[in-house]
Structure to design on (140 residues):
């Protein structure tokens, strides 16, 4: 448990949440500022700030749980789709520094989600190709 981490406090039961799922490694609850009906967060119980830091077992557990949760969402909310969003770092607006996966259902007839409706513009294929080579070499 990390001092001053709001999600660690939720895991410890020191702050209430609208819990929807729990297992040995994972907790899931509804977002307090939903951007759509059913906006849910899935977190590891063990504190890790982001994707760089989270243990692989916790990462797998969060994503396994997300599959169960969106099945329940499908039956309860009948969404047209569910956006999965996970932010790493203050530079991309991560606000709570405890890993969390957003599950954001979009119910039929509601506004398009800002997180899934960006403008499509072709990139520079040369730049894309060069960067792919550099990253692939790191990963090879
Ligand atoms: P971000 O770090 O930008 O990915 O988003 C943090 C998310 O946590 C936001 O959507 C907040 O509304 C949500 N949040 C912050 N505090 C709570 C809380 N006590 N209970 C539920 N959701 C929370
Ligand atoms: Zn934490």
């Amino acid at each position: 448990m990390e001092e001053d981490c709001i999600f660690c406090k939720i895991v410890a039961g020191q702050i209430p949440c609208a819990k929807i799922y729990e297992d040995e490694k994972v907790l899931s609850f509804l977002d307090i500022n939903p951007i759509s009906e059913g906006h849910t967060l899935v977190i590891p119980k063990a504190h890790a700030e982001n994707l760089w830091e989270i243990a692989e077992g916790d990462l797998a557990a969060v994503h396994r749980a997300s599959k169960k949760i969106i099945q329940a969402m499908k039956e309860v909310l009948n969404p047209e789709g569910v956006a999965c969003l996970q932010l790493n770092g203050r530079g991309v607006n991560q606000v709570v520094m405890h890993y969390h996966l957003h599950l954001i259902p979009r119910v039929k007839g509601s506004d398009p989600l800002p997180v899934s409706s960006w403008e499509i513009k072709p990139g520079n294929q040369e730049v894309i190709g060069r960067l792919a080579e550099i990253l692939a070499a790191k990963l090879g």
User: Anything to note?
Assistant: The mean pLDDT is 96. Residues 82 and 105 are 4 Å apart (CA to CA).
